[in-house]
Write a structure and sequence with these properties.
Number of helices: 10
Helix content: over 70%
Number of strands: 0
Radius of gyration: 17 Å
Strand content: under 5%
Distance between the termini: 25 Å
């Protein structure tokens, strides 16, 4: 990748903005970053840049969550399915043409934006918790394997379970920890997180980390509702542009 000052400044800005979004509203790091990076980078570079920042932020979330072991026992089927899906998704990544990849990312981003805007959550009964969890983990893993964004579908699943705040955070911590480790293994085996790309991904942790810190500071100072709606609209437009590029 071209390492001239203009490119570095652009990447720094994009990654920091994505970090601010994540730090402010608690989600959106890979969706925001990858959907913007895909406007001017190949799929391999867009994904490689985000792997380590996503993994580090997810591991931090896993450490922060309490009730880790009970969540692990409860959600292990979803975790196993997630890891399998990530491996399968990353393995198929090399065979995906750039246009197909752009279409997939665009649809995922728009789908998440619509779900966030209209609060699309279907209730899940206790009897169906494991089967729905396996399905959400597998499909989320497949999407994560081609985008690093395995979280949206799993967040919808956990929300549908009506967990209390402590259980919700603990579940995210357990699932995200193993999903993050699976991302490292899968993308390394796929030849994406190697050599120069690994170095750039490691460097990308700096602007993302700054953005996370800024976002955490802004969290209590700005209105969450309008900011979330602004992010949702931006994601919708980015997703639509990716689909447009895939079709032209």
């Amino acid at each position: 990748m071209n390492g001239d000052p203009a490119t570095i400044a652009l990447l720094f800005g994009v990654l920091m903005v994505a970090g601010v979004v994540k730090g402010t509203i608690g989600f959106g790091l890979p969706l925001v970053a990858v959907s913007i990076l895909m406007q001017f980078l190949s799929k391999e570079w867009a994904l490689a840049l985000m792997i380590l920042p996503v993994v580090l932020s997810n591991l931090f979330l896993g450490v922060e969550g309490r009730l880790f072991l009970p969540s692990l026992r409860r959600f292990w089927p979803a975790i196993v399915a997630l890891c399998v899906g990530i491996m399968l998704g990353a393995h198929s990544l090399g065979a995906l043409p750039q246009e197909v990849f752009s279409m997939i990312i665009g649809l995922v981003v728009i789908g998440f934006a619509l779900a966030e805007q209209f609060r699309l959550v279907l209730p899940v009964s206790p009897a169906r918790e494991r089967s729905v969890g396996v399905a959400a983990g597998l499909v989320g893993g497949l999407l994560g394997g081609v985008s690093t964004a395995f979280g949206p579908l799993l967040i919808m699943y956990l929300t549908a379970l009506r967990l209390d705040k402590a259980a919700f955070i603990a579940a995210i911590g357990a699932i995200w920890t193993f999903g993050s480790l699976a991302l490292i293994v899968a993308f390394n085996r796929a030849g994406i997180l190697v050599g120069e790309r690994f170095a750039w991904s490691l460097a990308a942790c700096l602007p993302v980390g700054i953005g996370l810190w800024v976002g955490s500071r802004l969290r209590g100072r700005i209105a969450q509702g309008p900011f979330r709606r602004l992010v949702t609209v931006a994601l919708f437009l980015l997703g639509a542009n990716l689909i447009r590029r895939a079709l032209t």
